[in-house]
Structures are given as structure tokens and as C-alpha cells.
Specification:
12 strands
């Protein structure tokens, strides 16, 4: 009779020492890769958590039988104990919690079964009801136990908690517990990713966009819009999606990321990332994928003050401009400015491998830096000496108008020196022609003290 896979592994585990069994698994995974699990995590942002404090607390005995209020009387969740925890490189701590949820009710009249101490199901007639205290009872409540896992990135203050079986209220309680054990500051636990930040994470993971969700529409009759496609679709340029991209904000992205599972054959994995930090995959992946996404989230947190959209920039002065104009078509104005900077990226960057969502991030970063240049004297001698740009934007007048309007209506300053601004921008683009938006921002921060 053929043995099942679990039977084979059980036999090996019984007949090998722990070291031999571990070595066998390592060799097996090296040769054939690791299956992993579907990823379904909720990211939380903490503040000033301590690796040493967390490990010290987890090593203590005081955490057993900690009660976590699930916020639901009918479906309570109790944190019974810390089942296990593991320390990984770069001060990452994996924690497994044993939880007890709502009881499973077994009706003796219908089922007639009870589970004994070994986990075996017995018929009610097979056991001594008086001995087990069941005489006269018609129901048996069996505790529903389940595991919840958390990964704590102590170096960048991010806590990821399993989203598979854990309700939001329980997740928040677990987050607060981990934060307190780590000596972190008490602060809101929300993890909010804006449109450009979602798109930057996709770019940093070399993702191929296949879906966008929009929300935050000004029209009260529209709550959300969802678009799906195949890999490498130019979604934001499609006629159907254009109204959503102009009137709403991206709240979820779906993209394919090439994941190396150790088998020697990297494969595409679809990643779903929401603006509230919920991260999941469509197929199984290794735990290291969560580490990669966490690293990208850290980049976003480090640079988020520089990740404004072009619409964010326009919002700084649009009310004053509208008040100053008798007939002003705001929608058309915004569209022209976005298109001008998008075309600039297409024109001057090595963007053959970009999809349209990546172009949007580059365009916003370039526009943000151009706005910064309005507030410094580029010809003072304290900044890089750059040559005259040999090529100008195809929609130069649109870019000039945005800089002039920002200067007039928001900074209340004189007309900007557009030629100086463009020369410095062009040199920066040339220097980072094949770099990421982060590379461009680093150049601006280092060379211009921004």
C-alpha cells in the first residue's frame, strides 16, 4: 500500500535525530524549493520598539493565559499562550500565538459524538457519560483553538500579523500587546499608504501591473471603481479607467512579482496591496516575500514626505488660481499638467521597461523636485554647476505654467528662473536615467540639501 506524503515525513521524523531530520529538510528544500503558504498579512506601523525588550519579555513566563478581548461577546478570542517564537537575522522576531475562539457546539441528539483527550472522535454510547460529567446533557461545547502568527521587524518598527483567521479587533489587540512588550510608544496603529506610495512599492518589486482599485471620489454617488487586466496592461491610459484616475485615488494595486522559491525556476506571484497595509498573494510563496515587501514599505516611510502626486502640488494653489480666473477649467488644467510631466519621463528616461503606473511615480518625483527648486537660488554657487540642457520638454509651456502658478499663488514670489530650474532637472535626469525614483530623490537631497 502506498504511503502518503505526511506518513513518509512522520516516519522519517521518528527514525532520525532532530539534527538529521533538519539536515534532510534543508537538502530537500535546496534541491526542490519550498512551497510556503499563501501570504495574508496586515501591516501595522509602530514607533521606537526594542528588539531586546521584546525578546526578554517573550522569554518570561508572564505571558501565558493573557486574555485578548475580541470585542465580540458571541465570538470571543482568547490569547491562551505564546506557542513559539523564533529570532531571525536583522532583528526579526516571529511569534506564534495559540488562540481560542468561539466554541463549536456538538448536539448529542444529532451528532452523538465527543472528542477525547487524544483528539479522537467517540460516539456518545462508547463512553461513560457519568464519568465525563455528560449525563443528562444534550450539547457539548468544544473549544475552537487556532494559531495566529506575527512577524516583528524591530529595526523599522513594523509589525505584520496574520490576516487569515484573525479578526481586525483581535489583530489590533495583538499589535498593542506586541508593541507594549517591545517598549514601543503608544500611538495610532494604522498603516496608510497613499497612491504614489503604493505605486512606488510596485516599482521597487519590479511588478507588472494587472489591477487597480480607486476610491475617494468627489462624486457622492461613486464609492469605488475596480479594474483588472493581464500583466503589463496600460490600465491608466485606457478610456474606461481615465475618469477614475482623474477623479479618485488608488486604494489597492495588483501586480505580478517574480518570486524565487529556491527551486531554480522563479515564477510570477500576484501580489495584492491595499492602502491600509493589507498584503496578500494569490498563490503560495516563501516567508521571505513578506520581508521584501517590508523593505519596500520602509523605503516609503523614509521618503514619504517627497512622494507627493502632481495633483497634491496643484492642490496647494488651485483655490487661489480659480478665484483669480473668470473661466477656469480645473479638470482640463490638471490633466494637461499630469500629461506634460508623464511625457517628460517618456521623453528623457530609459523607460522602455516602464508600465504606465511607474511613469506616474517618476513624473511626480520630478515635479516635486522642480517645486523645491523654486525656493532655492540655483545660481548662488553653492549648488552643482550644470551645463545648459540640450533638450527641452515637448510640453514645456505646460511645465512652465505649473511652476509660474505655484510661485505666484502659493509662494507669493516673483516669476521663477525656469531656464536654471530646467538645466538642473535635466542634469539630474541624465545622471539617474536608469535609476529608481529613490535614486533621483537621493541625488536631490544630497546635492541640494533638500
Amino acid at each position: 500500500m502506498s504511503e502518503s506524503k505526511s506518513d513518509i515525513f512522520s516516519a522519517l521524523k521518528s527514525n532520525l535525530t532532530s539534527q538529521q531530520y533538519s539536515s534532510f529538510l534543508d537538502n530537500l528544500f535546496d534541491a526542490y524549493g519550498k512551497k510556503g503558504d499563501k501570504v495574508n498579512l496586515q501591516f501595522f506601523e509602530a514607533s521606537n520598539i526594542s528588539y531586546q525588550s521584546l525578546v526578554h519579555t517573550l522569554d518570561s513566563e508572564s505571558l501565558v493565559d493573557v486574555i485578548t478581548d475580541g470585542g465580540d461577546v458571541e465570538h470571543p478570542s482568547l490569547l491562551k499562550k505564546i506557542s513559539d517564537f523564533d529570532i531571525r537575522e536583522n532583528q526579526i522576531v516571529d511569534i506564534e500565538f495559540e488562540m481560542q475562539g468561539s466554541n463549536t457546539i456538538i448536539d448529542f441528539d444529532d451528532e452523538g459524538t465527543i472528542r477525547d483527550g487524544s483528539g479522537k472522535n467517540l460516539h456518545i454510547d462508547e463512553i461513560n457519560q457519568e464519568e465525563h460529567g455528560l449525563e443528562g446533557l444534550t450539547q457539548y461545547r468544544e473549544p475552537n483553538k487556532y494559531a495566529v502568527e506575527a512577524r516583528v521587524y524591530t529595526k523599522n518598527d513594523i509589525i505584520a500579523i496574520s490576516n487569515s483567521r484573525c479578526k481586525g479587533s483581535v489583530q489590533k489587540q495583538l499589535f498593542r500587546a506586541i508593541r507594549d512588550w517591545s517598549g514601543g510608544e503608544k500611538r495610532p496603529s494604522c498603516f496608510e499608504l497613499r497612491e504614489n506610495e503604493l505605486l512606488l512599492i510596485q516599482h521597487l518589486l519590479n511588478g507588472e501591473n494587472c489591477g487597480l482599485d480607486y476610491g475617494g471620489f468627489q462624486d457622492q454617488h461613486i464609492s469605488s471603481a475596480k479594474y483588472r487586466g493581464t500583466r503589463k496592461n496600460t490600465l491608466t491610459n485606457s478610456p474606461v479607467l481615465t475618469p477614475a484616475s482623474e477623479q479618485g485615488e488608488i486604494t489597492q494595486i495588483r501586480f505580478y512579482h517574480t518570486h524565487d522559491d529556491g527551486s531554480g525556476k522563479p515564477r510570477p506571484v500576484q501580489i495584492r496591496l491595499h492602502d491600509d497595509g493589507h498584503f496578500s498573494t494569490s498563490v503560495v510563496a516563501l516567508p521571505k516575500l513578506a520581508d521584501e515587501v517590508n523593505g519596500c514599505c520602509q523605503s516609503v516611510l523614509d521618503y514619504r514626505e517627497y512622494l507627493r502626486t502632481i495633483d497634491d502640488i496643484i492642490n496647494d494653489y488651485i483655490v487661489a488660481k480659480d478665484r483669480d480666473s473668470l473661466q477656469f477649467a480645473e479638470g482640463a488644467y490638471r490633466r494637461r499638467k499630469r500629461n506634460a510631466f508623464n511625457d517628460l519621463v517618456e521623453q528623457l528616461f530609459d523607460s522602455n521597461s516602464f508600465d504606465d503606473t511607474e511613469v506616474t511615480v517618476y513624473a511626480s518625483v520630478i515635479a516635486t523636485i522642480a517645486i523645491w527648486f523654486l525656493e532655492i537660488d540655483l545660481e548662488s554657487g553653492q549648488y552643482p554647476n550644470v551645463p545648459t540642457a540640450g533638450q527641452h520638454p515637448e510640453r514645456e509651456e505646460e511645465i512652465k505654467e505649473l511652476l509660474k502658478d505655484y510661485s505666484d499663488y502659493h509662494l507669493n514670489s516673483t516669476r521663477p528662473n525656469y531656464e536654471a530650474i530646467w538645466n538642473h532637472l535635466a542634469e539630474m535626469i541624465q545622471e539617474n536615467n536608469k535609476g529608481s525614483p529613490i535614486d533621483i530623490l537621493n541625488t536631490a537631497i544630497e546635492n541640494y540639501d533638500l
